[in-house]
Amino acid sequence: MITELRVTRSRLCAVAIVLVVAIASLPFACNRSGNTNADAPHPRIISHTPAITQMIFSLELGDHLVGVSNWCQLPADGKYSQIPRVCDANGVRVEKALSLQPDIIFTQVDPSRGMFDKVKHHLPDVKVQQLRVESLADIFAAVKTIGDMTDRQQQAAKLAADMQQKLSVLDNHGEQVRDGKKLRVLFLSGSTTPMTTADGTFIADMIHRAGAANAGNEVPGDQLWRRVKVETVINAQPDVLIVHVDPSQVDTVNNTWANIKEIPAARNGCVYVVSDDRWVRPGPSVCDMAAELRRMIPVPAYEIFGQDNKMKK
């Protein structure tokens, strides 16, 4: 009897070991509640920034995405909610990235900085592709590059055409002028220590395309995005002021800027406080903001300044 029990126990242990091994060998993708894309087709992609992630989904490459950054936004339907977050401002979590077996890592960071060298050491065939996405032209070029590298040329061409169509609302209105000078538009991002943009960014490009001048280009600084103080904004004398902040700050920030009457935009009721992140994300969706920008910039300018381009009283 004791011998039979021992034999039975031994068999049960053997069966248990076989089951454990069998379960461990099953694909990671089985029985998951969310899509981790562990079984993603090639090319398998890691995206290092939110703007690039947006481009990847816009090009219908979501199923190829195996890793994203901590701050990337994934589609709200939850289909891709379990994609691992393997990147942050300091680079990529190497062991996790290696386990995902990527073919391409798209980043806005110069690869010569060495941020992805350890991944390249273990996966010498992985491509680390830098994408510059500061200006509108950069965004279009990045879309084309991703399309070329993933065999999505047709989708990239269609996306580019859709983006141009949305931007076209800014065209054909001529220069918006006051006293012989272009209407001045200043865009700020942030509330406590806001930043403005010099020429060379997608925001500045859209302002120029709308026939206005980017007042942020005259703000002192060496970087494309520059910190400003209240005095700086007053000195810039913008005719239109657009401020992007967190949704919880909209009312407070609007009351602040709208009551600084030394600013022409405040005197003329042309202070606009927005909270949609598409304003500050250099991806395809920034083109969705073109129509809103067009509404903010008076067409023609005498809607504010009068037929003779003099300020209305």
Structural class: alpha/beta
Overall geometry comes to: elongated
Order of helices and strands: HEHEEEHEHEHHEEEEHEEHEHHEHH
User: In total, how many domains does the architecture comprise?
Assistant: 2
N- and C-termini, Cα separation? 107 Å
Question: In the CATH scheme, what's the topology name of the largest domain?
Answer: Rossmann fold
Report the CATH superfamily of the largest domain: Nitrogenase molybdenum iron protein domain
The side-by-side strand order for the widest beta sheet comes to 4-3-2-1-5-6
Report on the structure:
- This protein has two domains: 45-131, Rossmann fold, CATH 3.40.50.1980; 172-305, 3-Layer(aba) Sandwich (Rossmann fold), CATH 3.40.50.
- 36% of the residues lie in helices and 16% in strands.
- The chain contains twelve helices and 14 strands.
- The chain has helices at residues 2-25, 50-58, 94-100, 117-122, 136-149, 153-167, 202-209, 230-236, 250-258, 264-267, 290-296, 302-305, and strands at 45-47, 65-69, 85-88, 91-92, 104-107, 127-130, 177-178, 181-182, 184-189, 195-197, 213-214, 225-227, 240-244, 271-274.
- The strands form three sheets. A six-stranded mixed beta sheet has the order 4-3-2-1-5-6, sandwiched between helices. Strands 9, 10, 11, 12, 13 and 14 form a six-stranded mixed beta sheet that branches.
- β3 and β4 form a beta hairpin.
- α5 runs antiparallel to α6 (153-167).
- The longest helix is centred in the N-terminal third of the chain and has 24 residues, at 2-25.
- Residues 1-10, 12-34 and 305-313 have low confidence and may be disordered.
